[in-house]
Write a structure and sequence with these properties.
With 202 residues, this protein is mainly α. It contains twelve helices and no strands. It folds into two domains: 56 residues, Arc Repressor Mutant, subunit A; 129 residues, Tetracycline Repressor, domain 2 (Orthogonal Bundle). 31% of the residues are buried.
């Protein structure tokens, strides 16, 4: 992550934003460090001070994007709390990030490289996939007798998939994001579907 001082932090952000725009428009292979420096309105010397290559810049964007989801990773199952409440909290941790336009833009850029550069894409996927956090919560709840789940890994994929089916994948094409009300509805419906499928009989 960026360790530059506060006055230069904005310059770092300018470069990241410019690189995302360049990679989206041209694709990674056809992108130019010269154009990125021009878009960011910084000198090439400054650009290379922060990022020694396009590959380094791409990886930095992935790290930046991954760091946005830190709140998701930090949420752990608590046996003393209501499981619906915890699932809603976890879903909102994911949802809040997906409401940020810059996150959608960076995600579009990373995903666009899947076919162009499988090696970079595979590396990015490992850093960005937070499904394990959803799996761990559902596994903990199942082991604790709060949910009836035989395959927590599959259930975790289903849970995050329900959220992304409305709040992420359709928006990659438009670059738009859900409103807070739309995200609230998405999360409520996703949690309700999971509870209906895996909840214990009342």
């Amino acid at each position: 992550m960026n360790e530059c001082s506060a006055p230069n932090a904005s310059k770092y952000a300018q470069i990241i934003d410019a690189a995302v725009a360049e990679f989206l428009e041209k694709g990674f292979a056809a992108s130019s460090m010269d154009r990125i420096s021009a878009r960011a309105e910084v000198s090439k010397r400054t650009l290379y001070k922060y990022f020694e290559s396009k590959e380094n810049l791409f990886r930095s964007i992935v790290v930046e994007l991954s760091s946005r989801f830190a709140e998701v990773v930090e949420i752990k199952y608590d046996s003393d709390r209501d499981i619906r409440e915890q699932m809603t909290e976890l879903a909102w941790a994911e949802g809040r990030i997906l409401m940020l336009p810059e996150v959608i833009a960076m995600s579009r850029m990373v995903i666009s490289e899947t076919l162009r550069n499988p090696m970079l894409a595979a590396e990015a996927q490992g850093k960005l996939d937070k499904t394990a956090t959803f799996v761990d919560m559902l596994k903990g709840a199942a082991e604790d007798g709060k949910l009836n789940i035989d395959d927590p890994e599959q259930a975790g994929k289903e849970f995050i998939g329900l959220i992304k089916a409305r709040a992420f994948w359709p928006l990659l094409f438009s670059g738009s994001v859900l409103s807070k009300a739309e995200m609230a509805e998405t999360i409520e419906n996703s949690v309700e579907m999971m509870i209906s499928r895996y909840g214990l009989p009342s």
